Amino acid sequence: MAMQARAARTREALIRAAADVVDDKGYNGATLVAISKSARVSMGALTFHFASKSELAEAVVEYAAALAGEWVAGAVAGQASPLRAVGGLLQALARLLDEDVVVRAASLLARERPDIVPAWHSSWMSTLCRLLDEAEAAGELRRDVRPPAVAALVMYLLTAAEVHPRTAPGQERFWGAAGAMARLWPFVCDGIAAAHA
Prior knowledge:
Layout: H1 2-29, H2 32-39, H3 43-49, H4 53-76, H5 82-99, H6 101-112, H7 122-137, H8 147-167, H9 171-192
Helix pairs in contact: 1-2, 1-4, 1-6, 4-5, 4-6, 4-7, 5-6, 5-7, 5-8, 5-9, 7-8, 8-9
């Protein structure tokens, strides 16, 4: 049992180290040597758990997807309306982008290497689409607004919220993804919400 616990800790340390290196250097700049050094494990231990860099990248995305799924479930529970739940979902994901390097790295990997990793948003996209369908059925969306278009816009917003602080000088970096989402979502919501919503 102690061996299993140690193996699980080593695996998680490798995933977090890979996320740190990918977040800093991108997928192409991340090397297995740098990841093993960051995790403070041997290359043998790394290759025991992950046969390749792409396998490790997939593990980063899977870990992030599981974390995002948990946060999203908590964020949408008990919301007064489906459209408000969408706002809660976005704020939760933006906070995750700010606070968890694995989620940031998964978002970066989804852009840089969509051929080798599934998009990190797979764990929350079905919830988003369901909420938008419910908002439409409840009359919370303007008549000319379609849920698939809003879902696409949400993905663009989250990508921008993750990318912009990486490249922006000064205060934008300080506000982070959650600050950007808090400022942008009300404008989007005003544009898609029915007048009475």
